[in-house]
Write a structure and sequence with these properties.
By secondary structure, the chain is mostly helical. Helix content is 51%, strand content 0%. It has two domains: 99 residues, no CATH class; 107 residues, no CATH class.
């Protein structure tokens, strides 16, 4: 069951210093930092060229360093856990206790510094954080309005600015808003966003609730407000030229 219910979508900084790995040898800092920034898996050689650590956020550098040290301690690589993500989390990932901002850097992997196992583990932990943020007393019970209010607070306080800029975050924020309204007789909260994209996605979720009364298989992305939200988000991010509406007359 999606933690958001009603067809909503679920998600489908350390102080550790890279300087610890910098010795007093003759190799340049940039070269040593570049070496640290590589994921230790079968793709590391392929990914080891043209790495610009100056474009890598500090928490991503720290995460890469902590993971690399962890592999060294256990004489392992992430590729060892290719078909065992739970084992990877238990033996490598979860003990490092990355916060959400760092997990987002790993999961988004904008610069290609993290392995498939690391990305998948980060995504799973982020999903579990949202589940926990609902603060349900009974894990098997359907979420209440108060649960969604708790989730809204978490999304606002714990998400990084980078995560908040994504369409996926807007979907999750809107889903929590729509479900809170649904379960509180239309009430809104001061935790609601006035962002136009979130507002459109909130309407898309509300339209989905109505559509599923007669068509249980209705999907969020088939709602017209969802299409409008995606167009608005693409336009806000100056990438809308590459966007094509699924209902466009010219198709």
């Amino acid at each position: 069951m999606s933690i958001f219910g009603g067809g909503g979508s679920s998600y489908s900084i350390s102080n550790y210093s890279v300087a610890k790995f910098v010795s007093s040898g003759t190799t340049s800092f940039a070269a040593r930092a570049t070496q640290i920034a590589q994921p230790k898996d079968d793709d590391s050689e392929k990914n080891s060229t043209n790495v610009d650590v100056t474009s890598m956020p500090d928490n991503a550098v720290d995460a890469r360093a902590k993971l690399t040290e962890r592999y060294g301690d256990l004489d392992a690589t992430s590729a060892k856990y290719k078909d065992d993500i739970e084992g990877f989390r238990k033996e490598i990932f979860d003990d490092l206790k990355f916060d959400r901002a760092t997990l987002f850097q790993i999961a988004s992997n904008d610069n290609g510094y993290f392995s498939k196992e690391e990305i998948k583990a980060a995504e799973l932990v982020m999903e579990e954080q949202l589940e926990k943020a609902l603060n349900k007393s009974d894990p098997d019970a359907e979420p209440t309005a108060d649960n969604y209010l708790s989730l809204l607070e978490y999304l606002e306080k714990e998400s990084s600015e980078e995560e908040k800029a994504t369409f996926e975050w807007a979907i999750n924020k809107a889903s929590a808003q729509a479900n809170y309204k649904r379960l509180s007789n239309g009430k809104e909260s001061d935790l609601f966003s006035d962002d136009p994209v979130v507002s459109l996605l909130t309407k898309a979720h509300e339209d989905l609730f109505d559509a599923q009364k007669t068509n249980p298989d209705a999907k969020l992305d088939s709602m017209s407000a969802y299409d409008s939200a995606q167009y608005q988000w693409e336009r806000n991010n100056n990438t809308y030229d590459a966007y094509t509406s699924p209902d466009a007359w010219w198709k």
